[in-house]
Amino acid sequence: MTERALWPDGVARLAADDRFGAWVEQVGPVTTSVVSGLDPFAYLVRAVVFQQLAGAAARTIHGRVEEVLGGRVTPEAVGAADPTALRGAGLSASKLKAIVDLAEKVRSGEVCLDEAELEALDDEAVVSRLTKVWGIGRWTAQMFLIFRLGRPDVWPADDLGVRSGWARIHGCDRPPSAELQKSADHLAPWRSAAAWYCWRALDVADPPGA
Asked: Residue limits of the HhH-GPD domain (predicted)?
């Protein structure tokens, strides 16, 4: 795992914002842990494993899945693997179905995960492509955009953490997704950074000015 800084211009924009500015000063620049060497397919497998799980448990299961696949997280390795062994690694039935469907669609060419091609697509086109896979919804696709492709203007308004962090930063009740979808329009084209600060706001014990 390595740390990298993202969107310095976005951080500067948020630092000047009436609400986000104090949080930027307290939390510091946007950084993210990047899993070194993971291609888009392996990254998505990891994202499926991590859905709705705490980090330690997800890391353990992911490690076991890698062992079952012989250390090669590829569509071909998933296709050749014993489903019972993958279930035994700790995958739920739904996560196994998602990973198998992803592998099948990549092998058939229905879902292309070529890095250069993904980079050339706009955000919504990437979401549309990834959500063809059973079990990969808009949220997972948005996390892929933010943390794998580094897209700067993704706004996951349905994310509970973003909604809760927004409420803490703004001193208001947690907004419904539909309301929050429009509330950050003024922060474009840096809404990925805004989402990151919303998540971090939930980790801060003492908010700015407390």
From this structure: 49-203
8 A C-beta contact, residue 48 and residue 35: no
SS3 at position 15: helix
Is 193 found in the same domain as 118?
A: no
Q: Which residues are catalytic?
A: 159
pLDDT digits (tens, 9 = 90+) for 38-81: 899 999 999 999 998 878 999 999 999 999 999 999 999 999 99
| Gyration radius from the chain CA atoms | 18
Angle CA(143)–CA(205)–CA(145) in degrees, nearest 5?
10
State how far the Cα of 191 lies from the Cα of 203, in Å rounded to an integer. 19
Is residue 186 scored above 60 in pLDDT? yes
Let me know whether 26 and 112 are in one domain. Answer: no
Judge whether 165 and 199 are in contact, CB under 8 Å. Answer: yes
Residues 139 and 100 in one domain: yes
Encoded tokens for 176: 């419904």
